[in-house]
Amino acid sequence: MAFNADPHADERPQARTLAVLVDNEPGVLARVVGMFSARGFNIESLTVAETDKAAHTSRITIVTRGQSHIIEQIKSQLERILSVRQVIDVTQDSAGVERELALVKVRSTGAERIEALRVSDIFRAKVIDTTLESFIFEITGTSSKIDAIIELMRPLGLVEVSRTGVLSIHRGPEADPTAETPAATAASN
């Protein structure tokens, strides 16, 4: 009789988006990224920006991949970092919205140029720069939408891609109910 020592062996790793609300102070990003590195976790996408100047709060959005117990371990480790105020698993939130922005440069002429414009139109990409031999398209959407347009542009003369990484927010008129709101943060200070 075989004994399976790992109860999670059959579970497939899943991509998860975590929103990490932190104090906006020197070294916070290094501590968060260092936690991932020290424990051998991978970061597939990372975006960070100050979201509330008055409360000195920043939002770090991290896309990582792992089995559910690994994701729980990551969340637990993040919550132990002193400057971390909140960790939100956006992927598990039915009201979570995720988007990414990409700039896609395509060099083409003739029929390929016309086809690149058709593809961009289908994906609602915006032409933000054009020359006689190239376009730069701006596209916003899910990561899979960005991946799809990139693959379609590849045979049409794809030259370069720049991506922001995933951004996330809670759907509806209110702030994420599990997150501190700027007003609540200011009132507690």
Question: What key attributes describe this structure?
Answer:
9 strands, 189 residues, alpha+beta, 5 helices, Alpha-Beta Plaits
Task: Please describe what this structure looks like.
By secondary structure, this protein is of the alpha+beta class. It has two domains: 14-93, ACT domain (Alpha-Beta Plaits, 2-Layer Sandwich), CATH 3.30.70; 97-167, 2-Layer Sandwich (Alpha-Beta Plaits). 29% of the residues lie in helices and 38% in strands. The chain contains five helices and nine strands. It has helices at residues 28-38, 68-79, 110-122, 143-153, 182-188, and strands at 14-23, 43-52, 57-66, 84-89, 96-107, 126-130, 134-141, 158-163, 167-170. The strands form two sheets. Strands 5, 6, 7, 8 and 9 form a five-stranded antiparallel sheet that branches. Strand 2 (43-52) and strand 3 form a beta hairpin. The model is unreliable at 181-189 (pLDDT under 50).
Which stretches are low in confidence, meaning pLDDT under 50 for 5 or more residues running? 181-189
CATH architecture of the largest domain: 2-Layer Sandwich
Q: Which percent range fits the helix content?
A: 25-40%
Please identify the top-level CATH class of the largest domain.
Answer: Alpha Beta
Number of domains: 2
* CATH 4th-level superfamily of the largest domain: ACT domain
Sum up the overall morphology in one term.
globular
| SSE run | EHEEHEEHEEHEEH
Which value, in Å, is the CA radius of gyration?
A: 20 Å
Summed up, the helix count is: 5
Beta strand %? 35-45%
Number of strands: 9
SS class: alpha+beta
Largest sheet: 5 strands, antiparallel
Mean pLDDT: 89
CATH topology of the largest domain: the name is Alpha-Beta Plaits
N- and C-termini, Cα separation: 61 Å
